[in-house]
């Protein structure tokens, strides 16, 4: 957290540039850094602002603005190091990329020219004269640079005595004189220290010297209107004024006045100070003496115009004084001056040039200066002839600012009015003057006039005499009404008029009266308000300046040294209703205003300015005096006071709270809404005795729509705690109308405070039906109402309610709830709603479930859920197996079989699981189920009764289950019974059985002992039988060998006289075989198969029958296809319980032997076949003889070979396995090259 604050905080500076703290601003934290900043951060009251450094090229928008995080007037290496250490980034801004600027910041002096500079690298050249740096100069400059860098830290340490640092800086300045360029930024820390030290010693000469050097250096790298330069100029100007360097100070002040005013506003104290110094009322020629330019001037009348004030004396002279204290004088009249008035840019005056009465109205143009510094006289009008019947001179005049109306008053009380273009060539002619008031010597001379234009084309003219105040309303050059006001009249200086507002202020001895021109038009109007300002004292002068009203009163001097009377000056803020300033002056004075500047002219000619303090200063003074109500009034009436107003209210509220005035304090806290965190106030008023005030505050927050959900909740709880039900419900209704908060929280509060009917009504109105039912059921306990409420809801919503509240309703009002459930079931069946949700309410209440199922089970949509309910009842042992079978199976359909089975397995309904799996023929699934529940007898039973093709797998699964079962499951008798059944089935080899059971951790030898002994006995018996069979087969083989020898070497007599096929006498042509069978040719062709054309049909049939009779154990030569035999062998091998026995049978028949008798016979016959064919090919010419020979040979081989003939191409090839699969191309069988007859397929 500290790191975040350190990185993102800003130094808060006051309007004088002095740091006074730090602040965080999320928005300003997003502004990027630049070593050549476009903006500076300044603080205007509580607002942080980004001020452009170059007003000619300000940033386009906030996103492109940048400012400097550090002091950018440092070498680039040091800047980057500081940014890297504190802000963790490498700077590559515009300033860092400006190589020329960075080089100048670290430049060295040229050894020849004065103003030239060169880079701080060896061998550099002067940028001005081109001089090459010498090695000696390089070393000198380098040492000076290193010394300055090393001393920088020491110069900035406050713990080092100032004098020590000053001495070090003076030595460095001497060292840098001929080495570091005057614009090298390494000089800045040294110059700053010398400037500050000189200021501390009040050494104005050196302070000015170092200040100017600092300013020149800053100007090289910062813009003219950069805030940093403006502040330095401001401080330097003060030093120059103190050192009497007025012209230089004035130049600096004039440079910074406008920029500082733009940044901080005219009301800022720093701007006022600058203006004060510029407007300092000192004679430039005699600066130590006060301004005495108006000494001995007897001011009888005055008026202001722009930035000037015109002061008239009774002897006819007029003084013009400007804001810059430039004064001019001219003689306006030769005898006397009665009145001055300004309108637009012109000055109007009434006076006498002659001894006799001959009043003149003169119009001056102050913008045009004539002879003797007098303004140009534009016109002169003789006023006495216009009132021929009167011998009194003109005493006052008034001109409207639009120069369209003028009024002139006389000494006898008469008033003339002219309406038209006052400055026209033919204007002010005698014929157009209107006499609106007749002579009244008793009233005295007219001491004041004021003209106001009001809506409706009417004109109001106020006439002030020493005794009364009158108002005349004119329309179409006719006086339509006249009023005499209650004011007692006033002298020439005791009234003021504001043309912009049409308000006339008249000061009499007792009261100060306020009249509005608009009210004077009304018949019943004209009665102004009055204030007791300066009551009981003679009024000397009344002056209005902005919102202030300055009043001079004549009072007896408390110290009667030089005069009997003194002047009491009081400045009132009428709107704010407070006295802004009050003081006593030893002599009678005059007040006048130049612009916004109020000046006091003493009797001795001294001129003083009454300067208004800035808003913050005034507020601080008032707050320190606990005058919070006055401070609030000032802030409200100030254009910049809005930012401070809430803060004042907060302080005022804290003050009142501390005094125990909680009611008024809460009223002040109400004014802080939007600024002050509400939780601050709420914590103060959470005490039960202050809840009334807390309600007032929270009501105000809601009225201003600054509330959140927490505020609403607190206010509701406060109302409820105070038992203000009426206010509570009214507020709830307002909240309901606004719909800006969570109604569930409101509902909860109403329920907590036991406003149950209102809570349920609110929930119903906002469709919070769950909350409404919660109130009805859990708080009001009105279950019948809840059932009716749910019955009126849509089917889908009713189902949701029942899912939540159904159980308690079943418990509290079972009959009504069951009726509701039945109705919802019927409605849901029609609408297709998911009515299955309601069945969850029956969990744990089997009786209710049974009752409902009896009603709803005929509904197809509910059948499955009724099954679940009934199964839950069975699981809870509420029903018998017979009942559950009857209830479930009669609703079983192919569509719901799977779901029913799943439910039955979940709830362990064994009868249903067995029925479904048995009926479906899913022996394996049933086996898994029995294994899951550990029912070993059922496992044995299902293995016995399963289909034959699954029996082997089933027994193996049963054995695996036993091997993995626990000791409790291993029932010895049951396992013995299982082994007996396995032995009977003969589908699992005993070795496999023993291998599986050997993995069990719980079986003992005694369990399988009997099974092993029986198997060994059977094996022994089988071995004896096989030995006997072997002997018999060897005997048969010997007989076959003898028969073969006889066929090969003995003559065979063929004496068959009948055809073996048709059993008729043989007739040529005939076919004879060595097997003693003979055929007619046509009979032979009829019975011979295509693939065995040289085989005896009768013998071939016998061979096939022999193969089938032997169960595939033997293969007759020439009759069984090799591929079919191989496929049959694989099938037998896959299904055989004892694979080794099957293989041994084939081996016993010699079908896989590559050596032995069978192979020898095959090789011998093949060789004989080849030799005989070659021998007879040269001697036998009859082709049938050769065929007979081949037939005889083929028949001879028919007992040992699988083919009746051996083609020539196969002689000499390796013998092939007759059980190999055919080749992919569909040709003859291809025997693999490996000698193992089982190969990879085994």
TrEMBL record:
Residues 1191-1206 have a biased composition (Low complexity). It is found in: Late endosome membrane; Lysosome. InterPro entries: ARM-type_fold, CHCR_PEP5_VPS11, Clathrin_H-chain/VPS_repeat, PEP5_VPS11_N, SET_dom_sf, TPR-like_helical_dom_sf, WD40_repeat_dom_sf, Znf_RING. It comes from Caenorhabditis angaria. It holds the Pfam family TPR_PEP5_VPS11. GO terms for cellular component: HOPS complex; late endosome membrane; lysosome. Belongs to the VPS11 family. SUPFAM superfamilies: ARM repeat, RING/U-box, WD40 repeat-like. The lineage of its organism: Eukaryota, Metazoa, Ecdysozoa, Nematoda, Chromadorea. Keywords: Lysosome, Membrane, Metal-binding, Protein transport, Transport, Zinc, Zinc-finger. Residues 1059-1100 form the RING-type domain. This is RING-type domain-containing protein.
